[in-house]
Design brief:
The complex is a heterodimer of chains A (135) and B (360). With 135 residues, chain A is an alpha/beta fold. Chain A is built from three helices and seven strands; from the N terminus they run H-E-E-H-E-E-E-E-H-E. Chain A has a domain of 83 residues. Chain B is α+β, with helices and mostly antiparallel strands and 360 residues long. In chain B, 48% of the residues lie in helices and 13% in strands. Chain B is built from 15 helices and eight strands. A three-stranded antiparallel β-sheet of chain B has the order 1-2-3. In chain B, helix 5 packs antiparallel against helix 6 and helix 7 packs across helix 11. The mean pLDDT of chain B is 90. Classes of the chains: A alpha/beta (135), B alpha+beta (360). Chains A and B meet through strand 3, strand 4, strand 5 and helix 3 of A and helix 3, helix 8, helix 10, strand 6 and strand 7 of B.
Chain lengths: 135, 360
Amino acid sequence: MTSLESIPATLGIDEAWVERGGVHWLAPGKLTVRDLAKGMNEFHARFVTITAYELPKDQGLRLEYHWDLGGQLLGFPFQLEDKSIESIFDLCEAVDWIEREIHEGFAIDFVGREYEPLLLREGQTAGVNLREEVK
Amino acid sequence: MSYKIPMGPYHPGLEEPYKLEMICQGETVTDAKLSIGFNFRGIEHLAESRNYIQVIALMERVCGICSNIHTLTLCQAMEDLTGLTPPPRAQYIRVIVAELERLHSHTLWAGIAAKLMGFKTMFMTCFELREKVMDVLQAISGNRVNYSMNRIGGVNRDIDDPAGILKMVEAIEAEMARTVIPIFTTSSTARSRCAGIGVLTHEKASSCGVVGPTARASGLSQDLRHAAPYAAYAELEFNSPVEQGGDVRARLMVRALEILESCRILRQALSKLPPGELHSGDDKFNFITGTATSRVEAPRGEVMYSVSWKEGSRNPARIHVRTPTFANMPAIRWMVLGARLADTPLIQASIDPCYSCTDR
């Protein structure tokens, strides 16, 4: 199994892991989420989930991607500039439902995929978890 | 000619509402589509308007079967944010209630599976045993469904008579070993209805990211109680049964063997229950700003909570819940491909789905 220490260098990240709140965090820097997903596939890490946060005031949205590597929970935060990020559905089948849920909850567009309704019904507006009403 | 058969959202084969739309050629399923969201209650959003006491009661209601697991996972995350460590006795009590909940969940599932197999006497036997497990939970907590056992820094109630509880557990274990386990593992009815159907291959289980007994029945050896021990699991000896078949029978076998392992854990935990306090800290909690994540091996698999807090606030800024059924359910599409239409109610039930958890 891939060791935790070897992952940053393999992914081309200069930062080191920071253990906090039950998670080994690694700032992805310039690494795209798709390159990260490809790396996780190579390490045989198990995808766990993505958590979306609406940050205070005009700070936008943050997504935290989680994988499990032999019982260790890995976390990679991505700050979104424009409410969109590339989808990794074609690289990781397990993200299908959570990408759809986040799209419906936070109106985030996962570029490169199509959506079918998950928790909402056909015709309902995405963004039900946002503090401000989406029009 | 192909035709579409909808199962649900309201259907006798489903315990809760969801929809499985199947494309069939004759009696064979060639494709399937799942629709969820019929139980969507907006609990994550609601949690942001509850204080640190109220939010525990709210999250206990995410699931009607593994209610304790949700508060355990939430409290572990909140303990990380408050710097509290539960005392040893509380850690053992958490294990005891969690394993009783696993027994309850697996026995309930076994009863439902028996009903879907057309094995009605087995259904009655399982539900009678489930009642006995609930009697034990009631003896400990005073409640039969939402036990209200967990609090930040420990547990709310003690186990005053561990020897008495142990006797009740041993009686349940003896009955399980005498009836449920041998019938499920050896009877021709169970074998003929379960063997070779609803197969989820090791590769597909891995790519779908399934968890819990569904994963272990497809040869994936993953169990957070071993891989990332919490509460007092590191001090207890037990096995996590793994089967290679990936079919409904393998999922049945894994759960049957897990029932015995849960009894083994309960015997150890009740015998070794250490003396001491039930919780650390008082009723005032100082949360730090940040996010804490906690994972627990629920009866259906891994539950994960991400809890975000702002210092000085009484309410969480965000709670995200990833339930095991959310991870397991998409795999149903692959399990029913090529199956006979008549087997699909049992196949979808074999992951022990919980739609209330999934929708939240």
